[in-house]
Amino acid sequence: MLENWFHLSENNTTMRREVVGGIVTFLTMSYIIFVQPVMLQTTGMDFGAVMTATCLSSALATFIMGVWANYPVALAPGMGHNAFFAFIVCGRLGISWQAALGALLISGLLFLLLGAYGIRSKVMNAIPDSLKFGIAVGIGLMIALTGFEWAGVVVDDPNTLVSIGVLTNPSVVISGLGLMTALILTCWRARGAILAGMAVSAMAALAMGLISYKGAFSMPPSLAPTFLALRPQDALALGVMQVIFVFFILDLFDTIGTLVGVAELGGFMRGGELPRARQAFMSDAIGTVSGAVLGTSTVTSYVESCAGIGEGARTGLASVVTSVLFLLALFFYPLVEMLGKAIEVQPGMQVYPIIAPALIMVGFMMMRGVKFIPWDEPTDSIPAFLTIMLIAFSFSITEGIAFGFMSYTLLKIFTGRWRDLNLFLLVISVIFAFRYFYLSI
């Protein structure tokens, strides 16, 4: 039955390779189970419910990707997406998490609609590569900054805004041990480096008496606090079209970029095209919609799937294995709760030193895109530079995208390279300009 469904022989693989590949992919990306509840609880969402929603939506989307698209690609709430959801939409803009989930649902439905009519690839192609990579790098810097703050390495300073923390502080020591573990394992090309780093940080925190072990297994937390709590009507009433747009663009970038990268590594491309691309994109969109309904941020394809492909996975059977492991993770809630515990380093200042190494490592991985920016062409590299800097320094993905689009359009026009522009870029740039100069938002 498995042979007929997944075509193992045709794809030159075996059941053992697929199982091992699925396990390796899960171990490589499972840090999201610990990170996601910590990040989203800053919005007021229930920690346990977010963990359950994360595991269920990841399992569902990954399973659909496996059995429908037959690709060894796993999905889960994306890093960067969760930062935008928690820190910018809910934090800076003050939008309730229920309305934010509503906006996410709308973007997911838009993703489904455009995928059904084949418009999605046209939108993606309309955005210059320099801006795509600039956005990814900028998000990586923002996530890394959050990691350094949660480690206690970077702290507030009234004169310079930020400064170095006390490096002998227990939180810095805990995060430092975990980060060094993850970095060394990464240099050794070891799988699960991020998860191992978090484990070392947890052991250090236990040894220092900053957290306590309360067991490893339990029944899954209730989903009730976040299930169907989304309010799309509130999102529309608040007029958060820019939020919906950014949710959509980020999901579009991640999905296409990840699928193309994974397909190249696995040898899935045929004549420059990805077979069953529609099924793969629709699986991703279904994941986003289900995540919003269950109560978590954008579910998208994970580049960590390359780890499983590196172990020989070539079919969706590996994704099915990863999906099952996400379901089993539901019963490890005590460990998730322990690793996500906030530690108070001084009155009014809480940090998350066990989670911090994961954020810093993700930031490192996202920085790789900087080498693909054409630095010798200033009309491309300057907008990418502004995008990176504004995302990181304003701590806003929206502002970075806005300045990137507007500067790209203006520089192309004033240097006589208007042929590099398209209608989509012009319209979006005008909308952002209108937002700044007329609406004063």
Summarize the structure.
This protein is mainly alpha-helical and 441 residues long.
What characteristics describe this protein?
about 65% helix, two-stranded antiparallel sheet, single chain, mainly alpha, about 450 residues, globular
Question: What does this protein look like?
Answer:
The protein has 441 residues and is mainly α. The protein is 65% helix and 5% strand. The chain has helices at 2-6, 15-29, 31-41, 47-69, 81-92, 97-116, 120-126, 129-151, 170-187, 193-207, 232-238, 241-266, 277-294, 305-310, 317-328, 333-339, 356-366, 378-393, 397-414, 423-437, and strands spanning 75-77, 154-157, 161-164, 299-301, 343-346, 349-351. A two-stranded antiparallel sheet has the order 1-4. Strand 2 and strand 3 (161-164) form a beta hairpin. The longest helix is centred in the middle third of the chain and has 26 residues, at 241-266. The N and C termini lie far apart (57 Å). The mean pLDDT is 84.
Percent range for β-strand residues: under 5%
Number of strands: 6
Helix content: 55-70%
**Helix-strand pattern:** HHHHEHHHHEEHHHHHEHHHEEHHHH
Strand-helix topology:
Layout: H1 2-6, H2 15-29, H3 31-41, H4 47-69, E1 75-77, H5 81-92, H6 97-116, H7 120-126, H8 129-151, E2 154-157, E3 161-164, H9 170-187, H10 193-207, H11 232-238, H12 241-266, H13 277-294, E4 299-301, H14 305-310, H15 317-328, H16 333-339, E5 343-346, E6 349-351, H17 356-366, H18 378-393, H19 397-414, H20 423-437
Antiparallel strand pairs: 1-4, 2-3, 5-6
